[in-house]
Amino acid sequence: MKETRLSRRAFLGLGATAAVAAGAAGLAGCAPQQSAGTASAEGDGSPNGGSASSVSPTKYTPDFLTPPPVPTDVKEEKDCDVLVIGMGIAGTAAAKEAAEAGKKVIVLEKQPEDSYSVISMAGDFGVVGSQIQKDLGIEWAPKEDIFNEFVKETGGRCDTWMMNYWYDHSGEDFDWFIEGADYEVLESTAANRKTDKPNFIRPKCFPPLETYNYKEEVYPYFHGTITTNPNMQWACEAAFNAAVAGGAELIYNAEGEQLIVENDKVVGAYAKTPDGYLKVNAKAVVLCCGDYGANPEMRHYYAPWTEEFMGGVDDGRGQLMGIWAGGWMELGPHAPMTHHMGGSLGVDSFLQLNMEGKRFMNEDVPGQNIAAEHTRQPVAKDPELAKAGVKAWQIFDSKWPEQIIHMPDGHGYTTYFVPDDQAAEYETVLSGFGLGYTTQAMVDERTDVIANSLEELAEKTGLPLETMKAEIERYNELCHKGIDEDFGKMSKRMFPVENPPYYACKFGNAGMLVMFGGLECDHELRVTKDGTNDPIPGLYVAGNTMGRRLLVDYPRRGGRHQSGQRAHLRPPGRQERRRGSVGNPYARRFPPPFQTPREEAPSPSREGASVSAVCQMTRPLDTVTRPYCYDIFQKS
Q1: What is the C-alpha separation between 181 and 97, in angstroms, rounded?
Q2: Which residue in 382, 377, 347 sits closest to 360, CA to CA?
Q3: Cβ 30 vs Cβ 519: under 8 Å
Q4: Is 342 helix (H, G, I), strand (E, B) or coil?
Q5: 3-state SS of 486-524?
Q6: Exposed/middle/buried for residue 466 (C-beta within 10 Å: 0-12, 13-18, 19+)
Q7: Buried/exposed 28-40: b ≥16 CB within 10 Å, e otherwise
Q8: Is the Cβ–Cβ distance between 616 and 568 less than 8 Å?
Q9: I want to staple 318 with a disulfide (CB 3.0 to 4.6 A). Which of 13, 383, 407, 545 is the partner?
Q10: Considering all CA atoms of the chain, what is the largest pairwise distance in Å, rounded to the nearest integer?
Q11: What DSSP element (H or E) covers 287?
């Protein structure tokens, strides 16, 4: 077991595997499951049961719902007020909030110190009202517009109370999270850096595209996201350094494995370390262990429709610990974050043909919805394309440089053409990932197929020539007619394919970054007892381990995922002293045993902060403005 304070080296030690988690929640402090195991069948007549993948999700009780035996070989025991399990963005915010409230904090992190990382690529934060945004002149859409869209895209199965908190407080929570960090703020998305500071914040899609009006869109993008660069490591470092300054203790190589429950109250946890088991006694435990996307058995049981998507970061141990302690998973449908990033021009709304050469969709939708559309399309007959999961080709012609300005604004889209002789003026933005700017050379290099005739295009893509030609002719006819009679695409984005050379980009099966689906909890982020709204004393949840944020589908709202991880971690405590508790829906004090006063002088803005406040700042998501992001994590 390695016990230490957080070091800059640890925070900057980006592991290669973390790149896979772009947009996901912070890596959890929970032990990975070594195998999917088997599940016991119910009602299928099999005395020996069967594997999770061989029976209906509703016909078996999976082994993972059975708690493991209580560890007996405890090598060390510690005591604290607040135990945080997992040091991603949610756990970091929880540790800072609790430490600044004067509590004795221990954080368990399963990663070794020398390879620890949060997320190597994520950085989009969909926050509202940050001082950074105010200084830049960034304004968000009205709350009611965002709320109504969020409710629509999640089928009404989101928690609008949490959305309220996010809209009203995420900006000030973001400012609090990055206190003490040294960074540069770019004036616009395309602005070049003016200092040699390694860390900088870039506003996303700012200024907004003049040709874009979110009120016209099927899936609107709400501007306002800001992005930490080169990733969110430095932001988390600033927050955790503040936690360490407040006395928080970090233990690496400690995999949270099982909670300690006495008289229906959570009083600590066991963690597996290289030296044996560590027992931590705590007055409150905060589960910040990420999602369950990397646990195939849990995905089959809770969200079998997501099994075609590769990816996932965390193994669901946080959710399982909560279930074993008497909690329960929120009802579905759970929502995978699977937004496609497209080809050389991102997910711009150009013609798409499936592997049979047929048009199949209104292409004017964002990457998350493109991924959903592709699930119904046939697999390629070509073995290599089938193995790569290619479901469609995006096709456009040589007129693309003048057309992309009319494409949607936001995450995944390319809307600005930079002539080669001006590329040096856009060095910073062109070197970034998916920021909406491109050059002829970049498109030529990143396009899978470039052809001078439709015959050559069919040959290189493997599409059936006659079918492909007929579909392109029909599409061109509709473009010139100015109305999409087949799929209803907006007329201003109907561009014919008739000016060679022709470009084609493969659209494969989208990977999954995060699985939204977590423990049921109340608005204090206290995990509730199975089948009830009654909280389990001593147990809190945050980040991707928690439920109540969204279901059905992941709305593309730039960075809401990540900003929510922080914002739901610390609401009430600060507002309580600032506004007073009378008539303030967010003013809540610590539940016992956190009503004891601080021994040291309270911060003028943090007095009365609670573990429930701590938990509520967790998460990205992300992500309501389509950052994510990658939630925080990937991840707006």
Answers
A1: 17
A2: 377
A3: no
A4: coil
A5: CCCCCHHHCCCCCCCCEEEEEECCCCECEEECCECECCC
A6: exposed
A7: bbbbebeebebbb
A8: yes
A9: 545
A10: 79
A11: strand 276-287
* pLDDT given at position 2: 47
What percentage of the chain carries pLDDT values higher than 70?
77
Query: In sequence order, what DSSP letters do the residues of 221-259 get, joined into one string?
Result: -----EEEES-SHHHHHHHHHHHHHTT-EEEES-EEEEE
- What's the rounded Cα separation, in Å, for the pair 548 and 522? 8
Spatial separation of the C-alpha atoms in residues 118 and 236, rounded to whole Å: 8
Which residues lie below 8 Å from residue 259, measured CB to CB, with a gap of 6+?
A: 266, 268, 269, 270, 285, 321, 322, 324, 325, 539
Q: How distant, in Å, are the alpha carbons of 296, 310, 383, 490 from that of 387? A: 20, 13, 6, 33
The length of the chain, given as a count of residues: 636
Q: Are 103 and 247 in contact (CB under 8 A)?
A: no
Closest CA to 633 of 329, 236, 113: 236
Lowest mean pLDDT among 10-19, 117-126, 189-198, 256-265: 10-19
Of 408, 46, 402, 111, the residue nearest 256 (C-alpha): 111
User: In this structure, what DSSP letter does residue 369 have?
Assistant: H
> Six-digit token pair at 314?
């965390």
Q: Which residue has 């956190």 as its token pair?
A: 594
* Angle between helices 160-177 and 233-245 in degrees, nearest 10: 80
